[in-house]
Specification:
Shape: globular
Largest sheet: 5 strands, antiparallel
Strand content: 15-25%
């Protein structure tokens, strides 16, 4: 019984302390009629940025279930980045999202929402790490 309680306590504390960042950028994926756009351009940019700047890993969380057509948000933790890296990351992310939005079919494809000046503080709602 003690082993079960210890294992359960260890498991729950892992979830509680898993988040390292306090500040996150929020990227919203909205649907127009036929589902949400892909997060591939954003995730490709994040991977390239990590390789280029030799960053071990950025926290990326997904909050799903925000609408009937699969709307969701991505949250990217930016506390591991230096001030210049944050500026460069946000500019590059904005550029990748703008390129994705300009290439979409307006009456059919969903849109990616991003406000580079808005930070979300520590996440307290159910998310899954990507």
């Amino acid at each position: 019984m003690k082993k079960i309680l210890f294992t359960l306590g260890l498991f729950l504390s892992t979830f509680f302390f898993a988040q390292k960042s306090e500040n996150y950028l929020q990227i919203g994926y909205a649907s127009i009629c036929c589902g949400t756009p892909s997060d591939k351009p954003v995730m490709d940019f994040v991977s390239q940025f990590q390789k280029k700047n030799k960053i071990k890993e950025l926290e990326v969380y997904k909050q799903s279930g925000l609408g009937r057509e699969g709307e969701y948000n991505l949250y990217i933790g930016i506390d591991k980045l230096s001030k210049t890296q944050k500026t460069s990351f946000i500019k590059g992310l904005k550029k990748a999202i703008d390129a994705q939005n300009s290439a979409r079919k307006e009456n059919r494809d969903g849109i990616v929402n991003f406000n580079e000046t808005e930070l979300v503080k520590k996440l307290i709602f159910p998310t899954q790490e990507i």
